[in-house]
Amino acid sequence: MTIRAVFPLLLAAGCAFAPVQATAQVKLLGNVGLGRPLRPLDARARALGGSAVVLHGGNLSAVNPASLSRIGASGIWLSYQPEKRTIEGDLASGELETADFPLFRAVLPMSPRWVAAASFGGLLDRDWGVQFTDTMTLSTGDVPFDERRTSDGGISQFRLEGGYILSPSVTVGAALQYYFGESRLEITREFPDDPFLSYVSATALQYTGWGLTLGTEFQPSDEWILGAVVTWNSRLDIRDDSTGAKIDVGLPIGVDVGLSWLPAPELLIALAGGWMNWSSLSDDLPDGNVADSWRLGGGIELRALQRGTAWTVFLRVGASFEKYPFELEGGAPTERAYGLGLGVAFFGGRGRFDSTVEFGGRGDRDTNNVEESFTRYTFSAAVFTN
Amino acid sequence: MRRKRILPPLTACALVLAGCGRDELVNVDPEAAPGPTPTTYESILDASQLTGWIDTVFGGFLAPAALGYIQIEDGTPGVSFRGLVRFESIQDTARLLSGASPVLRYDSARVVISVDSAATRLAAAGTVLQLVEMEQEWDVSASWELAVDSPGVSIPWTGGPGGSLGPTVFDQDTLALVVTDTTTEMPDSVIFWLDEASDSLLKLWVDTTQTNTGLAVVVADSGRVRLFSPRLLYNMVPETEPDTALSTRSVATANTFYLDTTSISDIAGILRVGGINGWRVYAEIEVPDSVPVLGSAELQPLRGSTINKAELVLTSLDPVAPPFGAETEFGAGVNELADDFRVYGTKTPLSSFVPGSSFIVFPDSLAADSTLRVDLTLEFQRWAEQLPGTALPLRLAIRAIPEDAAFGFWEFGAVDGDPAQAPLLRIVFTPAARFTIP
């Protein structure tokens, strides 16, 4: 049958060939709300259940600026975090491998009492990708196609920080955060069996915003450190690079508290908890469903081996529990993880290398229709000048 | 400004630091895939649905003399092809060991022409070829009406269209499909012995004061023969050694063929591609920014969309009888036209070839299926990427490629012909996705 013969039949039949119309889009971590929260932590803090508000022996994570004042030497450090994720769900499944650089930080003591620092760190991960195969019906017959929808990028923070020793037992700190980043959204549709031109449609979303963090540490004795951190944020401006459309959404206020305890010279116990009022974004986001996030974690660090000041080996174990803000089907998902860590300090403390492996899961298939298990590695290296 | 300068490096750092590498994708159910769902539309458009569509046919892009062969045919009403051959570089001096000698006489002269048996169609009872003297001077631009048809010079045949044929030099015996003369070691050739005319003809061709009107090769009865590489083989008898015969040869200094095209139908309302005339379809198509699509009453934006497929659907007309109509498949394709063909006609320069537009004209399948699709996807994609108001109409030339390989042409319906056979545009396209923030 020729096309001329088919043409009126198609018109008469009102033949529709839109390939797919989403009925209930699957929700994955990273593609709901503003993304998946990230924290600028080093490997040591990750092994201790995310305890990064206060730590004996140098708290390198970019959480509490007051901790800077206890770092008496200039130095730089970097964290690298590869992760393997296995996603299982009613409508989605697959294996993912991701890699982040959650923290890069440089410190410079300005005087015996105060220390300045600058750092880059993660804030929200918007990295996700899905694929599927489907068929569209044209006048010439069915045409199969493969489609990929991806988002690459996220929101980072650049921090200018300072820590100050008020008294031997009290330190304070402040950090100014500049939030920035881009996520590139792309849809690719390919036609493996037909000489059709592939379809690619893409845009980039740009993010900018500001935040202020104030922190303090209170050390009533050598064995104890207590700390608290409060963060205020501006609204986050989001601009679509293709259309120029803009929106802005509020970013939450956050509070973190923590403690570090040395029950014995070789043993450290750390605990931390945090809360952020993400639910304040509910009115700003099209799909609403945002809940406050909170997290709780802790861990134990054992100084296992030491050879003078040449090198020291630490063993760590910890666990964390975190409730994410952006809801999947059935509510906000949680992350559960336990970690094992190994750290080495060498050259009299002028160098540090820490590694952590965490095993855990996110979401619940029964509740959220999707869950993922993950193995997250974190490696940190630090160098100090004296 | 300062903020803009700091943004790129910060963004790069962001992509490195918080932006992640991702090696795999999650498999999802198509109906549950997150993100916007782009819709692919199909549109089938005739000329009335476009802003403009003009097409026409031009011919005359091929000269038989440039084809490298001689096609002769007769016996079918309205079909007459004649070959023309001229030999001019005849030796008039024999070079012997004793020195040069004028030629006393020529004998055993014969014209030998190779046969392209694949393109030859002999009559059932065989085909008789004749070698005939021409009575009028001609050149390789000769056509059925004109002995000379070169720029600025038009000399008609004095004896009327086709010219006057002189005495028959040689009647070739019934031609078998493959001629092999093993004695001369020239397989697949036809040999015209000049016999007693050898001496007089060659002396005439040697004499530069005389007009060399050359020879015509014609089919005496019916059949079609394609010939190439005409050469003249002859013996020279020197004056100083009359008992000696020296064999030598000359190649034709001019050869061509000409044909009576009066039987080719008018081109009104038809499109024609290929053929001995090098027929080309020139078309100008103006596509609106938004077009109607199948399954929807709304116009959809074509401009700015991804053109997944765009094709010109040509409806085949009834096959034209050979030799003018194509008997065998030939290649064709589309070039852009550099200018308005309504102004410059056949002199409109061709521009770049449209990638992906190559196609094969299969006479057998066209006769059965009746449509041929010319892929213009990349041409339309380029059009769709241009800003509204900046795009010129699509100006296209459809032609055989290579043009000299398609002896016969094929015909399709034109816009100004039978509406049922008019060309259509079929476009499959997908508009840009509407991403949501955030």
- Main pleated-sheet profile of chain A: 14 strands, antiparallel, barrel
Please state roughly what percent of the residues of chain A sit in beta strands, choosing from under 5%, 5-15%, 15-25%, 25-35%, 35-45% or over 45%: over 45%
Query: What's the end-to-end separation of chain B, in Å?
Result: 25 Å
The third-level CATH topology of chain A is Porin
Spatial strand arrangement across the major sheet of chain A: 2-3-4-6-7-8-9-12-13-14-15-16-17-18
Portion of residues within helices of chain A: under 10%
**Tally of distinct domains of chain A:** 1
Summarize the helix and strand pattern of chain A as letters: HEHEEEEEEEEEEEEEEEEHE
Calculate Rg of chain A over CA atoms. Answer: 25 Å
CATH fold description of the largest domain in chain B: Jelly Rolls
Tags for this model:
heterodimer, A: 386 residues, mainly beta, Porin, 18 strands, 5% helix, 62% strand, B: 438 residues, Jelly Rolls, 2 domains, twelve-stranded antiparallel beta sheet, six-stranded antiparallel beta sheet, 10% helix, 42% strand
Protein described:
The complex is a heterodimer of chains A (386) and B (438). By secondary structure, chain A is mainly β. Chain A has one domain (27-384): Porin (Beta Barrel). Helix content of chain A is 5%, strand content 62%. A 14-stranded antiparallel β-barrel of chain A has the order 2-3-4-6-7-8-9-12-13-14-15-16-17-18. In chain A, strand 3 (92-109) and strand 4 (114-125) form a beta hairpin. Chain A is elongated, with a radius of gyration of 25 Å. In chain B, strands 5, 6, 7, 8, 9, 10, 13, 16, 17, 18, 19 and 20 form a twelve-stranded antiparallel β-sheet that branches. In chain B, strands 4, 22, 26, 27, 28 and 30 form a six-stranded antiparallel β-sheet that branches. Chain B has a four-stranded antiparallel β-sheet with strand order 3-32-25-29, covered by helices on one side. Chain B has two domains: 38-61 and 265-429, Jelly Rolls; 79-259, no CATH class. Chain B has 438 residues and is mainly beta. The two termini of chain B are 25 Å apart. Chain B has helices at 2-17, 198-206, 341-344, 363-369, 377-385; strands at residues 21-22, 26-28, 41-45, 52-58, 70-76, 79-86, 93-96, 99-115, 121-122, 129-134, 146-150, 153-156, 165-171, 180-181, 186-187, 189-193, 215-219, 223-238, 246-251, 254-259, 270-274, 280-286, 290-292, 299-301, 306-315, 330-337, 350-353, 359-361, 371-375, 394-400, 409-413, 424-430. In chain B, a hairpin with a 2-residue loop joins strand 11 and strand 12 (153-156). Chains A and B meet through helix 1, strand 3, strand 4, strand 5 and strand 6 of A and helix 1, strand 1, strand 2, strand 3 and strand 25 of B. Strand 3 of chain A pairs antiparallel with strand 2 (26-28) of chain B, so a sheet runs across the interface.
